[in-house]
Amino acid sequence: MSKKISTIGVLTSGGDAPGMNAAIRSVVRTAISKGIKVMGVRKGYNGLINGDIFEMNTKSVSDTIQRGGTILQTARCAQFMTEDGQRKAAEMCRVFGMEGLVVIGGDGSLQGAEKLSKLGINTIGIPGTIDLDIACTDYTIGFDTAVNTAMEAINKIRDTSTSHERCSIVEVMGRHSGYIALWSAISNGAEMVLIPEKERPSDEEIVKEILESKKKGKKHFLIIAAEGVGGSEQLAKKIEELTGIETRASILGHLQRGGSPSALDRLHASMMGAIAVELLCEGKSNRVIAYRDGKYVDFDINEALQMKKTINEKMYEVSKILSL
Ligand code: ADP
Ligand code: F6P
User: Fold this and answer.
1) What is the pTM of this model?
2) CB-CB contact of 160 with 117 (8 Å)
3) What is the pLDDT of residues 12-32, one digit of tens each?
4) Which atom of ligand 2 is nearest to the CA of 133?
5) Ligand 1: which of 45, 87, 109, 173 to mutate, judged by most atoms within 8 Å of the beta carbon?
6) For a Cys staple, 46 with which of 77, 155, 253, 313, CB 3.0–4.6 Å?
7) Which residue lies with its CA nearest to atom 15 of ligand 2?
8) 3-state secondary structure of 138
9) Is CATH 3.40.50.410 correct for 7-142+261-306?
10) Read out DSSP for 9-56?
């Protein structure tokens, strides 16, 4: 039986994601319900190193479940990449009496949590990223909202693209991950999807498909491209030059990272926040929570980070079939 913990901390790190507030709220309220004090750490690992830390109560998280962004703010912290920075952060956990820490963020943030656990701070990770690029889990906080935001935006672009009989390239987020692109392509009925996990077709191959589709009487040609593929503007110019069809590129950018979280994001974030506190109470450390095959499970962070996220081949195949 592990010793009862009295104080834990919570932080958000890396790119923000809709639903992070629901996770923070759940950590705070679950901990308080168990008589545990909760310290909020502002601006990710930066706040940990600098002691930008405050006690949270149930009111600190009132009226936050529906808000995008993160009330604790987030950061990318270069100093924490160094051993010196990590030692300082672990020391600050001790100064503020934090026996455990919940880290909400992407795979970089989880690597940071692993470093802290090696320095004696019990850490639990919650996968928070719009990219869905954490291999151990079928779900990451923010993805559902982001893909719905992209879908709404693409609907609008599709309207104008059809009216003008244009080709439209819509670039969605995902530097290393094609998940937002793939889900959007299927959900928006795109003619083509370009993702970093797959070899990009040549300009000539793309043009051939556009011309064939035009011959079939299609009034627009919608290409969804993941950010990691790059070159959307250049591709638009090239298509126009080679086909004579007016082509526009739209880069959706950071609008995909904001906005009120979807029900799915709120629900999973709330469940994961509660489970994170329970794991800390059981004396667990260096674990990341995952939603896999319809269940909440947890993995050793090192093992989770070794896993490789691959694109869903069936979805990719279906996206092609449906674009006929
Ligand atoms: P995300 O968590 O969204 O993947 P990043 O990869 O930018 O975002 O990571 C967020 C922060 O986590 C980094 O700025 C850094 O402070 C910390 N971090 C990332 N990788 C490591 C690592 N290998 N060791 C220690 N800390 C790391
Ligand atoms: O990891 C989430 C993400 O939105 C990626 O899809 C994107 O490439 C990156 O963050 C953008 O990060 P920044 O906040 O530095 O613009």
Assistant:
1) 0.97
2) no
3) 999 999 999 999 999 999 999
4) 1
5) 109
6) 77
7) 15
8) coil
9) no
10) EEEE-SS--TTHHHHHHHHHHHHHHTT-EEEEESTHHHHHHHT-EEEE
